[in-house]
Amino acid sequence: MLIICNGAFKSGSSWLHAIVVELIAIKKINIFKVPIKYTNDINSPTTIIESRLIQFIENEDFALKNYLTKSHFLYDDTLKINFTDNIKILSIERDIRDAIVSHFFHIKNKYRLNLSFSVYYFLLGRYKSYEIMLFNLRCKKNIGDSNFFYFSDLKNNFEDTVTEIALVIGINNLSIRELTVIKEKTSLLSLREDLKSGNSKYYPSRRDDNWRLFREGKIGGWRYYFSKYQLKDINKIEKGYLSVFGKLIYLFLFSFRRRIFKIE
Q1: What is the DSSP letter of 92?
Q2: Which of 19, 68, 151, 217 lies 20 to 30 Å (CA to CA) from residue 94?
């Protein structure tokens, strides 16, 4: 079985992956290490990058062995693959406004920028919003929404949502105690402490403050950042509207940059 934890950037894919890791550990499911040739960063939970997924599917025996990867698989060519029953894709979606605020702080903390939200949104955030919209739209169009989970459901109804996640990968007998352990080990505090202690592979860095890249994960925090104009703009983008000029900027900032520099 190949388990793919897929989500747009800053939409909860790290949390989803961490939950699956704990489910696997509790149920003692044997996970094989993905060969290094399928990733561009051996210290990352993204063990299979998008451009090498087909190669992995064609060459590896995931019918008899279990593999796990976190991903941000975006392109139609990837999502249109005829996935077999032993490939389990778990997708997660977050309120696009909260995802953008999280991305704002990610950029500030990672690059140590003294940047206002207004400047960020004008230069980058609105185009990131368009990408998140495209990501969710393409995932639901090509692979359906039956295995789509929501960040808000994990926040508001963790136990039931994790139980549903477990069912997708063939786990159907979670106890209350096991759910409690998973909740504790995947809490924001626990994930941050793992980064501080060097026990986590998320955001590998020599920086001592990389734990800051895991933020508070609140629902509705966007209310403290968006202006009325920005809200109107992002609502239009979420419905699929972006000017031709805006789409060209998006292609340059995200699509072309990723393909040219092989960022995955």
Answers
A1: E
A2: 68
SS (H, E, C) 119-179: HHHHHHHHHHHHHHHHHHHHHHHHHCCCCEEEHHHHHHCHHHHHHHHHHHCCCCCCCHHHH
Position 111 scores a pLDDT of: 87
Is 243 exposed, middle or buried (CB count within 10 Å of its CB: 0-12, 13-18, 19+)?
A: exposed
Tell me if 14 sits within 8 A of 187, measured CB to CB. no
- In this prediction, the residues of the chain whose per-residue pLDDT falls under 50 are 204-206, 211
Contacts of 37 (CB under 8 A, 6+ apart): 52
- Can you tell me which residue has the tokens 């087909």? 54
**pLDDT score for 189:** 78
Could you tell me which CATH number the domain at 2-261 has? 3.40.50.300
214 secondary structure, DSSP code? S
The whole-number pLDDT of residue 126 equals 97
Ramachandran angles phi, psi of 38, nearest 5°? -95, 0
